[in-house]
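The passage that follows is intended for readers who have already worked through the single-chain material. We present the inputs for a multi-component assembly, then the predicted structure in tokenized form, and finally a short commentary. You are encouraged to pause after the input and sketch how you expect the pieces to fit together before reading on.
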Amino acid sequence: MPYKLKKEKEPPKLAKGTAKPSSSSKDGGGESTDEAQSQPQPQPQPQPQPQPPSSNKRPSNSTPPPTQLSKIKYSGGPQIVKKERRQSSSRFNLSKNRELQKLPALKDSPTQEREELFIQKLRQCCVLFDFVSDPLSDLKFKEVKRAGLNEMVEYITHSRDVVTEAIYPEAVTMFSVNLFRTLPPSSNPTGAEFDPEEDEPTLEAAWPHLQLVYEFFLRFLESPDFQPNIAKKYIDQKFVLALLDLFDSEDPRERDFLKTILHRIYGKFLGLRAYIRRQINHIFYRFIYETEHHNGIAELLEILGSIINGFALPLKEEHKMFLIRVLLPLHKVKSLSVYHPQLAYCVVQFLEKESSLTEPVIVGLLKFWPKTHSPKEVMFLNELEEILDVIEPSEFSKVMEPLFRQLAKCVSSPHFQVAERALYYWNNEYIMSLISDNAARVLPIMFPALYRNSKSHWNKTIHGLIYNALKLFMEMNQKLFDDCTQQYKAEKQKGRFRMKEREEMWQKIEELARLNPQYPMFRAPPPLPPVYSMETETPTAEDIQLLKRTVETEAVQMLKDIKKEKVLLRRKSELPQDVYTIKALEAHKRAEEFLTASQEAL
Amino acid sequence: MAGAAGPGTGPGAARGDGDDSLYPIAVLIDELRNEDVQLRLNSIKKLSTIALALGVERTRTELLPFLTDTIYDEDEVLLALAEQLGNFTGLVGGPDFAHCLLPPLESLATVEETVVRDKAVESLRQISQEHTPVALEAHFVPLVKRLASGDWFTSRTSACGLFSVCYPRASNAVKAEIRQHFRSLCSDDTPMVRRAAASKLGEFAKVLELDSVKSEIVPLFTNLASDEQDSVRLLAVEACVSIAQLLSQDDLEALVMPTLRQAAEDKSWRVRYMVADKFSELQKAVGPKITLNDLIPAFQNLLKDCEAEVRAAAAHKVKELCENLPTEGRETIIMNQILPFIKELVSDTNQHVKSALASVIMGLSTILGKENTIEHLLPLFLAQLKDECPEVRLNIISNLDCVNEVIGIRQLSQSLLPAIVELAEDAKWRVRLAIIEYMPLLAGQLGVEFFDEKLNSLCMAWLVDHVYAIREAATSNLMKLVQKFGTEWAQNTIVPKVLVMANDPNYLHRMTTLFCINALSEACGQEITTKQMLPIVLKMAGDQVANVRFNVAKSLQKIGPILDTDALQEEVKPVLQKLGQDEDMDVKYFAQEAISAVAQRLTKLDFPVKDNEEPSAPGADKNHFLRPRGPGEDTGKFVPLMSRHTESERLGWFPRRQ
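Having made your guess, compare it with the prediction:
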């Protein structure tokens, strides 16, 4: 019995145990009494947990995977052309008087005048300029504003005690005036025609100013002097709602700032937390059930990933509902590829916190399992493996039957990437140990699919992988394997018989129906063509010995390290790409590479 | 009938309606447990059969409870179920029992998937009509109330669609309750529900008493129109159309117009877009007086909106707006208040705006009459004909008939020709395709002389285009031209040129000859077909390329009905028989097809041979020795002219071997 892994079950559990408190969390208790349950916790332990060598169950990362800035992989070379600048901006409410006077530098002015000067500068920055229809307008004044913003970023970062009470309303107003706007119509097709893998983003034309405004606001929030208690008068629900609206911006740089800012606000304003979560839910519902189009889903999920990471235990009902009613249906949407890593992270976080959610999650995934979209199916298989990596054996036995029925279908998929991805599960030791523990129930489900495709699948690589899987099964339980082979043949015969039986039954019902005088009014739909299985080969009378010998020879050892990460996003056509967009995105520096969960409480 | 003796062994007949009483439901339960979704779906689609087999009573007492309690399935199955139940009234015993269908539909109306919910609501609306007034109040209205106060937004959203169907038939007390529920949904916390309510507001207003409209609907409308979410506000604009129709001018002015004015200047372009998009409906709903005072200024603003989307939507409405103005004073209004803005749009920076305008601007000429058209509109047409964007030019050309009626096309022909030639040679095949489609129209309006002189050569050049779709369109264009100009013209100008291509070194061009013959033979008639075309076709039977040979067989089948029997017997048949012995499988196949078609005709059965199946068959990829026709130059997207969606359809004809 090669599968001794069972014995090693304890260490992973321990590993998980230690992993948890680190990311776990304290509840701010701001919004309601029941959130006040958890106690403040000093400092999170260093995040990356050393994985115990014997661990099979892999704890997931402590930070959500960051959203890619540039979704499209630029292939470089000659197709990169400069197109008409893909920029837009909805800035029609230009300020009337745009003539700005350059003010003296803050650091050169006397300390007692600094606050007043700071406010003056903030007010000056409320003047908006045109970057689209006439980019060359007001160059001088644009520069005044730019320099002013730059100076304030420096000032707020490096000076202490400058965030005084008078500054809050001014800073928030400046931010709101500059940023809260109706986003311009997209230059890309909307609705179902939008293709996240193909369409380039339209960049925000006013970015030279907006970037600094974002930068300033972020520093403002992060300033050690910043006091949420004063700020909450200005950073209120309305503010947050407007901020969330901006997440639909097409400019990835803008969304990146928004993400960090919202993450900070969530961290600092306990009273807004429930509201923020609710509004994010509304965005998701709309995205799932109404528009299928929103640019910021990945960023929002990234924030949620860090929020979930910090949920206190036991999980509140509201959070569980969120998993089932929001996160799972998000798997349905066509553009899943854009935000799948973040989504999978959120799901796995939930399961690590509460394993009893595994069953509803897997049932949900199986319900939304893609029928025709193979790349999406591969993503589902990726996620499922991540889930299986953290599954409790007791949960596994609850879901394994429907689960392996789906896997049997995947293994039989005519799309070789789907079949291949499913067969990679046989390289996962933890999964194999789970199967081994439940062989009597799993094998009979998997065997027919493996056996059939060992001969009939068109792709040679798949044959090798299938023989490998069969070999593992054989080693797992020789007797069971033989039984399955026998049973397969018997079933095969019975299948035909059953099909005939079913037809006859329907025939009888039809006859009964005919006796009803209403029959002519309800002409049943014309009989649908019977569903035939795709199989072309009839089972050969091959005996078990032969199968076994083949398995031995064909189960190639090629497998161990093929698990390379495939890039799921791919360009379908060689369209010219805009060099300006590429450069702009490459030049963007993240405020923070990962969103940590450390400060997050409920 | 009854003797469907299929399963002869059938014990069914004996036990049919007697002992094993649960039988049909047992089958259904069993089928619904099957792994295969398709099977489950098929079973659900046969639900009416099961109900028939059970009879009304057992359908009510056994089948429906089963469906209500146990259905948890994939959305696809649920959708089919929701649809079926809408037509089930007869199967449960008629209107008196229609309420039995409510429980399963109620739970379907609360599921997450929108399509299922919508279908359930649709079925519920259908069934509501079958309820008696008493049953409606006893069963249907409580259901609506339950949905309206459901915990989850999905049920509240579904409820929104049910108010208007039960309101008219309810008693006064119940009516008040229904209104109350609707009111609370309009201020629901979830935007989804507010959107659903906003989208049903107009429909609901229509069934209300006028007093309630004024006292209740208008405040709701005002609130929704100033919602924090623009997606809600824009739906209020739609409701505005229905509400406006119900009110008197004075009420309208006092109750609705302030909100509408505000919507036209909303800070979100989506709302302004909606106003522009619904402009004609709004105009009709508010009547001429308010139109002049309010809508025209609003329209002017929309035409110069800062977002191109809004301008384009408004530009689309220019013609309708003008048409619907009161005839008296119309010309002055258009000339003074609309035309100046249109002139601006002709040189708009956005091509969608220009092309939206180009698609309607020609329609103004009938409204403004000859003189104004020549003086004011013609310069605009000419400017648009020279526009850099092909879609703009195409839109002008495609609407030439409007101008033709008013001033005659000659005024334009000097500018028209360069525009056509340029489009005909455009690098994008879809542009070329679009202009080909207008050729017959242009030919008709420009006359045969002008055509022969200027356009004929273009039409022939398209036959050798390197994109198949263009060659295909070019052949059917020739057919339409022949229908217009007659056979004599065909014989002199087209047929010789087409037949020359039979000797072209490129097999694709040789095949084009065959496709042209397929298209032209009917229009040209027996004589030309027999004397000029047939010999060429027969000669091509010896072509070295198999694609050409099997297309010869197809062509012979196609033109067979036009030929006389002598020609068939003596010329066609031997050639087909020879092709029937061809070494190539496909050639043999099509030759056999043709032989049997010809034989049918020869035995005087005289049906016209049926061959609608695509004369366009490209069949051009006999891959064993010919390079398959690649996607060529024009892959990738060409957003301006057509959506990507159309593109995939367009590409439908790609290499598929017959």
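Commentary: Chain B has 34 helices and no strands. Chain B touches chain A through 59 residues (CB under 8 Å). How closely did your sketch match?
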